[in-house]
Amino acid sequence: MALFVTLDEQNIYVSKIALPDKAFADLYWYAINTNMYNRGIVFLLASNKVIKYMNKIIRNIGIALVLILIGVGIWQNNTGPKKSDVITIGVVAPLSGNLAFLGEGMKNAVVLAEEQLNKSGKHTYRVIVEDDGFDVKRTASALSKLVSIDKVNAVVTIASAAGNVAKPIAEQNKIVHFAIASDPHIAEGMYNFIHWTPPVEEVKVFVPELQKRGFKRLAVFGAKIQGIQAVVDELSKQLGGTDIEIVYNETHNFGVKDYRTMIAKAKATNPDIYVLEEFSPELEILAKQLREAGIREPITSIESFEQTEQFSLFEGSWYVNAADATGEFIDAYTKRFGKGPTLGTPNAYDIVNLIVSAGESIDGQVTNEKLAEALLRVKDQKGALGNLTINPDGLVLSKAVVRMIKDGKPVTISE
Prior knowledge:
Number of domains: 3
Number of helices: 13
Helix content: 25-40%
Structural class: alpha/beta
Oligomer: single chain
């Protein structure tokens, strides 16, 4: 059993919460976290026998004794510097499923950002990470929990599908939303932002690389998802006026396990290179079936080759990827977690620090509206992806790079 005691400036609330009776020898205080102490909320855990005794105290002596008891805990916590506000950031990432390695990288990134925070700042910052398994239904559920229960000030998502789920929720609930995503429409509205190298920058590097290498006929395979479609649409646009053409363009839903018919159709158009815009596990399935079908033409991509852990399937292949992280960030991350960052990891790290920077620029009470407005004032902030500026459209712009899978690892070959 537990007594749940809540204090504010004018009222005292006491209620019981059923807990398994563990026959405690006596009672003890357990603060849920520091922030609850600051709000005057504590749990008093005790056996049923002790609860009956406490009820008698409350009835006969009044609440004053309870105030004395819990005051000790509150006083101990409030002897430190007083923080104006607690700014809570919710991160929704795939911690399970085929892309769990991306979610792990994001989780590690926000842990690193939290550990490096200046604890003497104006406000306190808290990060909560939720798993969506790269499933938009679970994304919606995770966002609902973060908004309604955790009362977050900001949320972070990865991939355009999740970003498009979060976009209207952020506007409706007036919470800041940062997407690590390609679809530029996600940044529409006062509360939505994107920190990712946009398709226009990636394709701007991809087309000249095709020209330099002499490719003219592209067969494109792409999942039917907003981010990938944004990349393919931008590719079609920038190929206009060049001698390069898309001779085969196949879009499909997630879950494809047999690409053989599609591959046969693509092969009949005589492409000289195959462009794979897929997520795992479809990416690996397609790559294997291309080789099984006797396809010897090279394969390439924009981003997709880093959405897998099976780099050996793409050994020797070049591709275009979002901006490289700085050496300083890679070193700090590797030292802390014993391995290098994955796709989206530096972006998640930057987003936490961008929100903190915006929060620290606000004196007094922080509202989500003030936070969104402050983010648009961030200029040339040092980050994991270089100096960061948020433009008036809510985009953190960065350049793309040409990479290659070499000895089982992604290596930048041109910036």
